[in-house]
Amino acid sequence: MKENPLVSVIIPAKNEERFLPGLLNSLMNQTYENIEIILVDDGSTDRTPKIVNDFRSKSRFPIKYVRHEMSKGLTITRNDGIKNSSGDVIVMFDADNEVNNDYIKKGVATFTENTIGIIPIYSNTNDTVVERCIASILNEKPLEMPLFWDKKELEKLGYWDESLGFGGDRDMYKRLVEYRKKNNRDVLVSDNSILYVHHPHTLRELFRQQQYYGRGMYYFLKKNPEPKNFLTLFRIGYPIVFIGPLSLLFGIKYSIVLFAMSLPYILIELKRTLQGLMNEEIYALLMILIDGVKWLGLTIGIIEFLLFGKKYRE
User: Is-contact 144 119, C-beta < 8 A?
Assistant: First the structure.
């Protein structure tokens, strides 16, 4: 890779007026100078276009604004950003991310001759109680997926599969592993590039996120029919962790059957809650509520797809 390459920052966004200024401000503070920003607006109906225009007038870096009048989904939006880029290095963001001032400079400096991508260090923002619950209790860790890409290598690997919504990153990760083995390419970590990640801030946001995942699960499982992926479906029954005990409490017909069905889920949650308390996770007792909202959303999303054919981001 040549010295001081042009870096194309790709930002897909849909109704991100709450978070977008934080990301754009952190990009304005970058110590790396050779940057272009491509923001692809996936049919926003809020103030996202105005925020972008305001930043374009004062930005240190050129900002290219691409708009979808109708929402096309995350994978298509990401790919459109890459297709509109001119850089040698692609840096991917979600609109609710923020980064430290040396994020791009240190990430670019980590590339070697055989490197396809660079992974930053992730840090949770933990802004609200719900967000702290999700981060500390569920302990959801991101895939070891590069967010810095050598564009030429990325083009050989192929972009995100546009038929997928849920599971798009997992599909990309699977292809990346195979590509690295075949072509002897490295993925390295930049210890000085820190990405601050937001989790859903409210139970409603968490519910909507999982609802979208449920709608997209069919296409993901169709392309990735490994047994471990199908085990995810076990959790679709999670809402019964509430239904079983409540039906028994109120003497509903067949309550014993419902309670028996819910017992495995109850035992799993009791075990996880005790583990959380032993590890001094102060939010462990809220686990059942968080997981209940999460899997209820997933279940409803799957039902919406099966009955009404709703796709990932409709």
Answer: yes
**CB-CB contact of 116 with 180 (8 Å):** yes
pLDDT at 117 exceeding the cut of 90 = yes
**C-beta separation of 120 from 79 below 8 A:** no
On whether both 168 and 234 belong to a single domain, the answer is no
Q: Find where tokens 């067949």 sit.
A: 254
Tokens linked to 265: 């889920």
- Do 26 and 118 lie in one domain? The reply is yes
Instruction: Give the domain extent around 92.
Output: 7-197
For the chain, the average pLDDT equals 86
281 has pLDDT over 60: no
Residues 190 and 210 both lie in one domain: no
CB contact set of 29 (below 8 Å; sequence gap of 6+):
101
Segment 237-259 mean pLDDT: 79
Tell me, yes or no, whether 105 and 253 share the same domain. Answer: no
Q: Which residue has the tokens 């209790």?
A: 137
CA 16 – CA 311 distance, rounded (Å) = 21
Report CA torsion sign: 30, 36, 39, 40.
negative
Question: C-alpha distances in angstroms, 206 versus 130, 199, 201, 211, 280?
Answer: 9, 8, 8, 9, 24
One-letter amino acid for residue 237 of the chain: G
**Tokens representing residue 215 in the block:** 């709608």
Number of structural domains, the chain? 2
Which of 148, 170, 197 represents a domain boundary (last residue)?
A: 197
